[in-house]
Design brief:
This protein is an all-alpha fold. 64% of the residues lie in helices and 0% in strands. The longest helix is centred in the middle third of the chain and has 30 residues.
Length: 47
């Protein structure tokens, strides 16, 4: 048996997915904040 070798794709792909997920969460958070404060139209109720 050979030990599992760490390739470039083994590290690169999950790192890119984490960055994309973080950007999505940050973007939706900023959008919700703008909608809640009325910067993009009438204020929305939080619920």
């Amino acid at each position: 048996m050979q030990p599992h070798s760490i390739t470039k794709n083994t590290v690169f792909f999950p790192a890119v997915m984490i960055v994309i997920a973080s950007a999505l969460i940050a973007g939706t958070t900023v959008l919700a904040k703008l909608l809640g404060q009325g910067h993009l139209g009438p204020e929305l109720h939080p619920f």
